[in-house]
Write a structure and sequence with these properties.
Blueprint (H helix, E strand, L loop, with lengths): L1 E10 L2 E7 L4 E5 L6 H13 L18 E9 L4 E9 L2 E6 L2 E2 L12 E4 L4 H5 L2 H15 L1 H23 L7 H40 L6 E6 L13 H14 L1 H7 L10 E6 L2 E2 H4 L2 H23 L4 E5 L7 H11 L5 E5 L14 E6 L2 E4 L1
Parallel strand pairs: 3-13, 3-14, 8-12, 12-13
Antiparallel strand pairs: 1-2, 1-4, 4-5, 5-6, 6-7, 9-10, 10-11, 14-15
Helix pairs in contact: 3-4, 4-5, 5-6, 5-9
Bound molecules: adenosine-5'-triphosphate (ATP).
Keywords: ATP-binding, Cytoplasm, DNA damage, DNA repair, DNA replication, DNA-binding, Nucleotide-binding, SOS response
Family: Belongs to the RecF family.
Subcellular location: Cytoplasm
Length: 373
């Protein structure tokens, strides 16, 4: 998958920008705060309709402007198409081949991106919500169906929570509440089933990668931690089992949930965790081990995406090379060399192993102005 071209209008510190990319390595070089990450962010938004670093779309609109526009031309194995995301204070619009898409699930997944950023450490160290967001963003672009069920789950969950809140200390309508619980269980079971599949596959790939990076010394394991009372996640392979289990536990928790005015179990309360050689990395891992685990997970995504979609995603490396020692840098660069279109930001090319970067296209950035070498 290759991004041929991108256009930005009133996006962050770019008034109007038009760039042609190399199908291999693209390097954005410049001092701090010049607009390097803004370009990666624009590519990420073009793929996902959301930023990787803010939840507030309006922050991305250039100051004193009302609308920001990002458009791009993408080539994949079978076709060529255009994508466009328009951000405005009223909301956002996503277009595929100039046609507005009513549902995100029909837009996301056309352009697959994986971003490596210093904040990746939070996937291991951060709060459960960071890990849930990680799963949702990554699985969402691999599976439009997942995105559909996740959107529906969030919609019915919101409805159920609102009802629980409204009916606190009042007598609930049993029939209506049962319908809401069933809807939550139906959609939640789809979400859970796909997440279990994702974690299993992510673990398979990242285990091999992590072993290699750690010179065969470390065994990485990834676990999904469900808020449902499940004896073994291996028993949850089929949809029907998960649905009945979820519905039964919602029924069992009924009084507690009415009391607390919110839904206490379900994918919105789940988490994942990582072990190295049998010990929890978040609690016992060194900073280096945590970084390597995060790197292994990101690298595993590249392989998983290739397996699933038949071609490599586009890679965004946001100022990460300087944080990696030589060995980890070699692993990262050699595993993408010549096969993945890459966009890399850096303040300096010193310290980057140039023999692993073939013929890069270099964009020098200064105060939102770009010159190519
Ligand atoms: N909405 C906006 N409108 C105009 N300019 C903005 C907006 N948001 C951010 N900026 C500007 O963008 C610049 C930061 O760009 P960016 O985050 O891409 O930096 P960078 O080159 O990646 O730097 P670093 O190496 O420090 O990460 C700052 O000068 C900031 O003032």
């Amino acid at each position: 998958m290759i991004i041929k071209h991108i256009n930005l209008s009133h996006f962050r510190n770019y008034q109007n920008l038009s760039l042609d990319f190399s199908p291999q390595m693209n390097v954005f070089l410049g001092e701090n705060a010049q607009g390097k990450t803004n370009i990666l962010e624009a590519i990420y938004v073009l793929a996902m309709t959301k930023s990787h670093r803010t939840n507030k779309d309006r922050e991305m609109i250039q100051w004193d402007e009302d609308i920001a526009r990002i458009s791009g031309r993408i080539h994949n194995l079978n076709s060529q198409f255009s994508l466009e995301v328009v951000l405005s204070k009223k909301g956002k619009i996503a277009k595929l081949n100039h046609l507005e898409q009513a549902r995100l699930s029909t837009y996301i997944s056309h352009l697959n991106v994986i971003i490596f950023a210093p904040e990746d450490l939070d996937i291991v160290k951060g709060s459960p919500s960071v890990r849930r967001r990680f799963i949702d963003m990554e699985l969402g672009q691999m599976s439009p169906l997942y995105l559909h069920h996740l959107t529906e789950y969030n919609r019915v969950l919101k409805q159920r929570n609102q009802y629980l809140k409204d009916m606190r200390f009042k007598k609930i309508d049993e029939l209506y509440f049962d319908i809401l619980s069933e809807q939550v269980a139906i959609e939640g079971a789809h979400v859970l089933k796909e997440r279990l599949w994702f974690i299993e596959n992510l673990e398979n790939w990242s285990k091999i990668i992590h072993k290699n990076i750690s010179n065969q010394k470390e065994d990485l394991a990834i676990f999904y931690s469900s808020s449902l009372d499940i004896k073994s996640l291996d028993d949850c392979e089929d949809y029907e089992t998960i649905f009945h289990l979820f519905k039964k536990q919602l029924d069992n928790n009924r009084d507690r949930e009415i009391d607390q005015g919110t839904t206490l179990i379900g994918p919105h309360r789940d988490d994942m965790y990582f072990h190295i050689n049998g010990r929890n990395v978040q609690t016992y891992g060194s900073q280096g081990q945590q970084r390597t685990a995060a790197l292994s997970i990101r690298l595993a995504e590249i392989d998983l995406m290739k397996e699933l979609r038949g071609e490599y995603p586009v890679l965004l490396l946001d100022d990460v090379l300087s944080e990696l020692d030589n060995e980890r840098q070699t692993h990262l660069l050699s595993s993408i060399q010549n096969k993945v279109q890459t966009f890399l930001t850096t303040t300096s090319l010193d310290g980057i192993q140039k023999d692993l970067i073939d013929n890069p296209k270099i964009f020098n950035i200064s105060k939102g102005q770009i010159e190519t070498e």
